[in-house]
Amino acid sequence: MMTFTDFVNSDQGLTLVGAFAAAIWALAKTGKWFAHLQDQRLQRALEILEAAIEETYRTYVQAIKAARADGKLTEDERRNARQMARERAIALGKLAGVDVLRVLGEPFIDLWLTRLVNRAKSNSDAGWQTLSTFR
C-alpha cells in the first residue's frame, strides 16, 4: 500500500502537485483582484511621476520662465527638465516603495513623462494643476 508521502515523492505525485500549483498560479494571475492590484500599482507610479514633474516645474522651469522675457525654455533646458523629473520620480518611488521604472516600463517612462507634461501644459491656462484625475 502506498502512503501519501510515497505518492508525493513519486513521479506521478510530483506531476500532480506541480500541475495543481500551476493551476492555482494561473487562477491568481487572471483574477480580478490581481488586475486591480496591477491597476493600483500603475496609478501610484503615475502619481509619483506627476509629483516629480510638478516639483521640477516649480523648482526649475518656473525660475527659468520668470527670468526670460519670452518665458520659454530652450530645447536643452526642456531636455534637462525632463531628465530631472525622471530622476526625481525614481527617487520618490524608492521612498514610497514603488519601482517606477518597473511598473511603468523603463522604455516607456519618457513617453509617460511626455504625456503628463503635455497634459499639464494644456491645463496651464489656470496655472499648474495636478493631474491626479489621470486614468
Description:
This protein has 135 residues and is mostly helical. The chain has two domains: 1-30, no CATH class; 37-126, no CATH class. Helices cover 76% and strands 0% of the residues. It contains six helices and no strands. The protein has helices at residues 4-9, 11-30, 32-67, 75-96, 100-104, 109-122. Helix 3 (32-67) packs across helix 4. The chain is rod-shaped.
Brief summary of the model shown:
This protein has 135 residues and is an all-alpha fold. The protein has six helices and no strands.
Would you tell me the overall average pLDDT? 83
Number of strands: 0
Given the structure, what is the number of helices?
6
Global morphology: rod-shaped
Q: Using only CA atoms, what is the Rg? A: 24 Å
**Cα distance spanning the termini:** 60 Å
- Following the backbone from N to C, one meets helices and strands in this order, namely HHHHHH
Major β-sheet annotation: none
Domain count: 2
What kind of assembly state do the chains in view correspond to?
single chain
Low-confidence stretches: 128-135
Structural class assignment:
mainly alpha
Name the helicity range.
Answer: over 70%
Strand percentage lies at under 5%
